[in-house]
Design brief:
Mean pLDDT: 81
Strand order of the largest sheet: 1-2
Number of strands: 6
Radius of gyration: 22 Å
Length: 164
């Protein structure tokens, strides 16, 4: 599933954002991004796997929106990065649900009459893919873009009034 974005009409907002300065512009951009990604977070939580019998933390309980400033090579093209997803601790569960996996069992290496035997591998189970992250983003992309544009415009105007 490829998700392609073609966003138009942000040149004026970008110009106003640059006029605010780096620090204020960064805060405004990150705040607008957080608000815009809320529908994606809600759909991710709704689509994440859940096991009523488990006593451990569920993956869906760790889904958060995080923002940070681009750094290194990423900073050249991105002033802010907005990420929605589970915590690092729960990320493997998300990947298994999103892409599926094979449960593999390896036998120990051994020797037979002085010759090394290759490690034996067999598939003992399979989790079918049940995408929820890509689906959440794809279903909400128009809402995200429109919300981002409007929230960014509002936040820029508030910052201009506050600073001026």
């Amino acid at each position: 599933m490829d998700i392609k974005w073609d966003v138009q009409g942000l040149q004026e907002l970008e110009r106003q954002l640059l006029e605010l300065g780096a620090q204020t512009g960064q805060k405004v951009l990150r705040r607008a991004g957080r608000i815009a990604m809320e529908p994606v977070k809600a759909d991710m939580v709704a689509g994440a796997g859940f096991d009523n019998t488990s006593k451990e933390q569920h993956m869906r309980d760790s889904i958060r929106i995080s923002t940070h400033k681009g750094s290194g090579k990423v900073a050249e093209d991105n002033a802010a990065i907005i990420r929605v997803g589970p915590s690092k601790k729960e990320s493997f569960k998300a990947l298994w649900q999103e892409y599926g996996n094979n449960k593999v069992r390896h036998s120990a290496k051994g020797t037979k009459r002085g010759r090394k035997q290759p490690r034996q591998t067999r598939i003992v189970g399979r989790q079918e893919a049940d995408p929820f992250m890509r689906v959440a983003l794809a279903q909400n992309r128009e809402i995200v873009v429109e919300t981002f544009k409007s929230e960014l415009a509002i936040a820029i105007q508030k910052a201009i009034k506050k600073g001026g």
